[in-house]
Amino acid sequence: MGGAARARRRELHLKERTAVSNQDGVGIRQADVVRVREAPVQETPVQETPAQEAPAGGAAQKPASTALEVDDLTVAYDSRPAIWDIDLRVPEGVLMAIIGPNGAGKSTLIKAALKLIPRAAGTVQFYGQPYERVRGMVGYVPQRGSVDWDFPTTVLDVVTMGLYGRLGWLRRPGQREQAAAMHALEQVGMQDFAERQISQLSGGQQQRTFLARALVQDARIYLMDEPFAAVDAVTERAIISIMRELRARGKTVVVVHHDLQTAAEYFDWVTLLNVEVVASGPIGETFTADNLRQTYGGRVAYLQDAQRIAGREEL
Ligand SMILES: Nc1ncnc2c1ncn2[C@@H]1O[C@H](COP(=O)(O)OP(=O)(O)OP(=O)(O)O)[C@@H](O)[C@H]1O
Ligand SMILES: [Mg+2]
Questions:
Q1: Average pLDDT of the residues in 259-268
Q2: More confident residue, 188 or 164
Q3: Is the pLDDT of residue 166 over 50?
Q4: How are beta strands 121-126 and 269-274 bridged, if at all?
Q5: In terms of pLDDT, which residue wins out, 15 or 214?
Q6: Which of 43, 55, 215, 230 could pair with 184 in a Cys bridge, judged by C-beta atoms 3.0 to 4.6 Å apart?
Q7: Residues in CB range of 58: below 8 A, 6 or more apart
């Protein structure tokens, strides 16, 4: 889509969103609409890659250097858009943060990519293929609050479930799989909790259990929704070092992240999201005060953070 057509479409989108907001006052925040209208969404080279011709269903092969490609993705809950017309291209081997305020659609983006929720429009490809074809290559760490922790199962079972994609549901995991699961638990410092019911874990231990489940899968790309939530500083450092190790092995790691202060240190790529993509690209040129202002609008606390952290422009 050309720049002019895209701008026209976006203007239309905004009108619709204003209408939604007027109807019930909760769905899309009016302030966001005004803000986005005033601050045109940046067109980055990343979004301009010529991948949009890919047919739905993803028969065309993409070069291996693109780990994740999202084209024109829109998702709505009860006809209320949560993410709108998302275009994204994530190169293989990056450690990417998805950053945006609460309700920006970060979890929605990840869930829609994994087909856990229906898409209103758009395509998503992993390594040039639709998700169904590469399921085993994609590891997922869900946001902690979205999981039923009362489900009666042990830590080891949850981690072993990460292997089912490879095993098939009918084959029961044997000693080799259990050993792999134990190794993953060791990597996240949870080996002593293997037989513990997941309902009896602390928040940080739950988080680490799900990280181990993703690790055991030996995926090529990992999508992690707030893996640092509820973990202490030591665990956070352990998790980031695991992520770096994954990247060193050529894996791609996509992480929903809230802490603006650590973003530039932890990640080399970033997508700033607020219903639409504000900017996406290498962290050095994308994580700017201006882009953060566009992402967070008038939220003062974040703006102060943004100013201090980016330290490049007056806000
Ligand atoms: N199942 C659902 N039904 C209806 N609305 C939903 C549902 N899930 C999410 N939403 C709404 O969609 C929007 C995006 O939600 P989402 O969970 O993707 O945000 P997020 O960026 O992950 O936020 P957070 O930082 O709080 O995790 C929010 O306004 C949310 O209220
Ligand atoms: Mg979320």
A1: 95
A2: 188
A3: yes
A4: unpaired
A5: 214
A6: 215
A7: 123, 125, 128, 129, 130, 133
The single residue listed with the structure tokens 């969404």 is 41
- Pair 221, 70: CB distance under 8 Å: no
- Chain position carrying tokens 């609460």: 102
Residue 96's pLDDT band, with cuts at 50, 70 and 90, is very high
Burial (CB < 10 A; 0-12, 13-18, 19+), residue 268, is middle
3 Cα to the center of ligand 1, angstroms: 29
Cβ atoms within 10 A of the Cβ of 185, count?
Answer: 25
Mean pLDDT value of segment 9-24: 36
Strand-pairing partners, residue 69, are 89, 125
Ligand 1, atom 27: closest residue by C-alpha: 102
pLDDT at 147: 79
- Return d(Cα 66, Cα 269) in angstroms, integer: 13
Please name which ligand lies nearest the alpha carbon of 98: 1
pLDDT for 46-70, tens place per residue?
Answer: 333 333 334 444 445 544 489 999 9
Write the CB contacts of 145 (distance below 8 Å, at least 6 apart in sequence).
none
What is the residue type of 65?
S
